[in-house]
Amino acid sequence: MTPFSNALSDSRVMLRRNLKHQLRYPSMTVMLLGIPIILLLLFVYVFGAELGAGLSSRGGRGAYLDYVVPGLLLITVASAVQGTAISVAMDMTGGIIDRFRTMAIARASVLTGHVLGSVLQTLAAMAVLLGVAFGLGFRSSAGPLGWLGAIGVLALFSFALIWLAVALGLAAKSVETASNTPMILILLPFLGSGFVPTATMPTGLRQFAEYQPFTPVADTVRGLLDGSGGGDHALAAIAWSLGIAAVGYAWAVRLYNRRRAAAPA
């Protein structure tokens, strides 16, 4: 077998390992599913009538439901970051990585398994959230290409943030630290266009919201789902995603290689 085939096979094994962990320890998956759904019900039924006024001709809770779903999809992505960082930190502090070092497996497969497993978990959680949203009355004017575009943008952004989460998990000195460091990423969707238009914000906050990564991604997904297209936001969303993925990957590989070099032979 070629080195590439070996890496592919080892990554598949590590992916299966992480998927089995998700099934055996479902608490993270439950949180990943539960938090966005609770926020969906809270914002739509408590704040939706007021926040939805003036958003569209539909108005009220229905208009706000259509507006807020992309923001909640990003909350799902951000929540997955915390779970991934914790999972990686558990591996790093539990000694399993040192055991993997003694095995003839591809070096990149351990990290790849975490990333792919978390991306699949995130996409499944987003599918459940969309199902609940449709049950509440969410409506989309997107055709098949619009849906494919929205899913592609969300998958790319998930991939990017999860690589960053892997790096945060590797950098953490303990599982507790790993659970705390990604919290800022969970707050960023609230400080962007995920829940209210940036035009309604005070000047300083509006400027921050318009130039942080979650806003162009939310606007792109919203435009694709309502049939108006991603517009100029799509380029910014893709650029942010590729940039975060590159930084997260480089940082994660550097930390992982340093750990291997520091470990006893």
Q: How many beta-strand segments?
A: 0
Q: Major beta sheet, specifics?
A: none
What is the CA–CA distance across the termini? 26 Å
Tell me the structural class: mainly alpha
Helix and strand sequence: HHHHHHHHHHH
- Poorly predicted ranges (pLDDT <50, ≥5 residues)? none
Q: Give the helix level as a range of percent.
A: over 70%
| Alpha-carbon Rg, integer | 19 Å
What average pLDDT do the residues reach? Answer: 84
Strand content: under 5%
- Tally the helices: 11
Large-scale geometry: elongated
Number of domains: 1
Describe the structure.
The protein is built from eleven helices and no strands. It is elongated and about 60 Å long. With 265 residues, the protein is mainly α. It has one domain. The chain starts with a helix and ends with a helix.
List keywords for this structure.
265 residues, mainly alpha, 11 helices, 77% helix
Topology summary:
Layout: H1 3-24, H2 27-51, H3 60-94, H4 96-101, H5 109-136, H6 144-171, H7 175-180, H8 183-187, H9 203-210, H10 214-225, H11 233-262
Helix pairs in contact: 1-5, 2-3, 2-5, 3-5, 3-6, 3-10, 5-6, 6-10, 6-11, 10-11
In a few lines, what is going on in this structure?
The chain is mainly alpha-helical and 265 residues long.
